[in-house]
Design a protein that fits this description.
Elements: H1 10-15, H2 24-33, E1 36-40, H3 47-58, H4 69-73, E2 82-86, H5 95-113, H6 122-137, E3 141-146, H7 150-154, H8 159-178, E4 183-190, H9 198-201, E5 207-208, H10 223-229, H11 231-240, H12 245-256, H13 271-280, H14 286-289, H15 294-302, H16 309-312, E6 314-315, H17 317-321, H18 331-336, E7 341-346, E8 351-355, H19 359-373, H20 381-393, H21 397-408, H22 419-435, E9 439-441, E10 450-454, E11 458-466, H23 470-479, E12 492-501, E13 506-512
Parallel strand pairs: 1-4, 1-5, 2-3, 3-4, 11-12
Antiparallel strand pairs: 6-8, 7-8, 9-10, 10-11, 12-13
Helix pairs in contact: 5-6, 6-8, 11-12, 19-22, 20-21
């Protein structure tokens, strides 16, 4: 079996014999029930392949679709003129960067369909090309835009450049509305939804598929598709790890499944990680390692974001799609980039609960955050975590606390700004890191500064106080009854009261009971 890792051309995928998970029934529905669409999905989720498949379909290349669902659905196989704009190709760090990419594409189209001396701006040239393409071929035009938002994303944090890109794209995309009579179909894809770009203001007839139930699986892979196309590699991986078929399916789901793009939506696997796993017959952090979220960390730091809010706070649908409020709340960018996904929905208040989609993303994101929030060097992360885990597994709470106190007393690490926010964020990261290897929970939703750690032989109940005393923390453990669920448990139980001094900006005492 040949796996189409990194292959974005539908034509080469089919001709070279790579496996293709058939999405053409959805593509046929898409093209026959509407005309203008937008779709946002995380990177490496199959958007470019979708664009390429649509290009082959609208080119009338019936031979590429033999044996696929659409072969029986489509009768005409009409060839349309296609204008495919791929904004993946540029590095957008200067005003002319976007102009250069647009000019190169427009010049290619003009060689096919002609130009006019009066068309001097990108939007005027685009307008003339659409009209001439329709008139020259006798068929309306298909417009496909891949990663429409890449210039905007790369300019995050640079307001002047982003405003310039916004003005250029606003004028360019608005042409699609004015030339409606010449257009058969239009799809724009990207990672994010920038509301102020004309795609969503001037093009008010654009259907947003991002949270659409009918087309939720048009990118990504479902459980059903895994078992229809990949049974053989599943069983091979199970053999490599000497575990059962059911166990390998469970691990695959924990690592790569869990994306939801609407309330009560179906589970979707990240196709990039899935295909890499099937090819190598080994688990790995394939998706995360192809792109570090450095710009997201910058947003979190610049906005003084409280990290527990990533998974604790509910958000509205508007928050999920309002990327341009990122300076105050980076949740939308983090969600649309694929590091968070929908985990629950409160219908009464129209509130979405977010969380990490799967183990690959959770581990990768938290480990990446660690050196930014905790005084640990990037190359020492694994050593740092393994020491904490060894302490709790061996039943050594004193050493665990000494290690934790040393971490916060590192004199080379300066806590800038809100010390309470810093401690909450550092605590969140340490707790999440421990949770990848042991069972870690918060015993109450009332406080963000407590946790229960469970191993095979030990249970630790830890309560933190800010500018209090260890005795007060221990007293709260008793008063709140945190230990009651473990009254009949044979494991050894430790109660740990800890105080964090905001003035000293460090742990200044603890007691173990």
């Amino acid at each position: 079996m040949k796996y189409p890792i990194g292959i974005q051309s539908f034509e080469s995928l089919i001709k070279d014999g790579y496996v293709y998970v058939d999405k053409t029934d959805l593509i046929y529905q898409l093209t026959t029930t509407g005309r203008y669409y937008f779709l946002s999905r995380p990177r490496r989720f199959g958007k470019s392949l979708l664009i390429s498949t649509l290009e082959a379909y609208f080119s009338g290349q019936r031979e590429l679709f033999e044996g696929l669902a659409i072969e029986k659905l489509e009768k005409d196989w009409t060839k349309y003129p296609i204008l495919h704009l791929d904004l993946n190709t540029g590095k957008y760090n200067e005003k002319h960067s976007l102009d250069d990419v647009l000019n190169d594409t427009l010049h290619f189209w003009e060689n096919l369909y002609g130009n006019s001396p009066s068309e001097v701006t990108p939007e005027l040239r685009f307008k003339g090309i659409i009209r001439r393409a329709a008139e020259k071929t006798g068929q309306r035009v298909v417009i496909l835009v891949d990663e429409y938002d890449k210039p905007m994303l790369q300019a995050l944090g640079n307001e002047k450049l982003q405003d310039e890109y916004r003005d250029t794209l606003k004028a360019f995309y608005s042409v699609m509305k004015t030339q409606d009579k010449y257009i058969r179909f239009g799809l724009l894809t990207g990672v994010t939804k920038f509301g102020k770009v004309s795609v969503f203001s001037d093009l008010n007839n654009l259907i947003d598929l991002s949270m659409d139930r009918q087309f939720q699986s048009i990118c990504g892979i479902t459980d059903e598709e895994i078992h229809a196309y990949f049974e053989e590699p599943l069983r091979e991986i199970a053999g490599n790890y000497s575990i059962t078929y059911d166990e390998i399916c469970k691990q695959l789901k924990e690592r790569y499944d869990g994306y939801h793009f609407l309330r009560n939506g179906m589970d979707l696997y990240n196709p990039f990680s899935l295909l890499n796993t099937f090819r190598s017959k080994e688990f790995g952090n394939y998706w995360f390692e192809t792109g570090t979220p450095s710009y997201l960390v910058k947003l979190l730091k610049d906005s003084d974001f409280c990290l527990p809010n990533l998974t604790d706070e509910g958000v509205t649908a508007k928050t999920l799609t309002d990327v341009e409020s990122f300076r105050d709340n980076p949740i939308a960018v983090i969600y649309q980039s694929g590091y968070l996904t929908i985990k629950g929905y409160d219908e009464e208040f129209d509130i979405y609960q977010l969380g990490f989609p799967n183990k690959e993303v959770a581990e990768g994101f938290i480990k990446y955050l660690l050196p930014y929030y905790v005084p640990v060097k990037d190359n020492e992360t694994a050593y740092f975590v393994s020491n904490f885990i060894a302490d709790v597994r061996k039943g050594n709470p004193e050493q665990f606390m000494k290690r934790l106190a040393t971490m916060f007393s590192d004199t080379d690490y300066k806590i800038v700004g809100d010390a309470e926010l810093y401690f909450q964020n550092a605590f969140f990261i340490v707790m999440r890191m421990l949770g990848f290897y042991t069972k870690v929970e918060r015993p109450t939703s009332e406080s963000r500064m407590d946790m229960v750690i469970e191993t095979k032989d030990y249970v630790y109940i830890v309560e933190f106080k800010l500018d209090g005393t260890p005795e007060e923390a221990l007293r709260q453990i008793e008063e709140k009854g945190y230990a009651k669920p473990f009254a009949m448990d044979k494991r050894k139980l430790y109660r740990i009261g800890v105080n964090f001094s905001l003035e000293k900006r460090s742990i200044d005492g603890w007691k173990i009971k």
